[in-house]
Design a protein that fits this description.
Helix content: 10-25%
Shape: elongated
Strand content: 25-35%
Radius of gyration: 18 Å
Order of helices and strands: EEHEEHEEEEEEE
Number of strands: 11
Low-confidence stretches: none
Structural class: mainly beta
Distance between the termini: 44 Å
Length: 117
């Protein structure tokens, strides 16, 4: 099964599945066949972009509310101080400590705070 994200103004509105019977020719998947099928059967104001559960294309599997910049899908930015890396994954300004304790991000101090409860 092939998955396609409906993208409107850079935001994923929904993700749908298209049968391999529609997207495959001679055993080879053709993205445009899925797009053409959706364009002819599902009304949209946006466009269709193929996505993959395995993230083998476009960096991440698209989800509702994710963004699409023409290259990759990214989840919503979790905090204003976090930046998107080259793999379209949000990264904090400082890495979370790797000492086996539980931490949560504190945006006010832009640091990791140990969870004590």
């Amino acid at each position: 099964m092939a998955h396609y994200a409906e993208v409107t103004e850079g935001t994923v509105k929904r993700v749908v599945v298209v049968s391999n019977d529609i997207t495959t020719i001679d055993g080879v998947e053709d993205e445009q066949r899925g797009i053409d099928h959706l364009d002819s059967t599902v009304p949209t104001d946006g466009s269709w972009v193929q996505t993959s559960y395995s993230a083998s294309i476009r960096h991440n599997y698209a989800g509702v509310g994710h963004t699409w910049d023409g290259t990759g899908f990214a989840a919503a930015q979790p905090y204003p101080s976090w930046t998107l890396d080259e793999n379209y994954v949000w990264q904090p300004p400082t890495p979370m400590p790797d000492d086996g304790l539980l931490y949560e991000w504190d945006e006010a101090t832009t640091s990791w705070v140990e969870v004590t409860e």
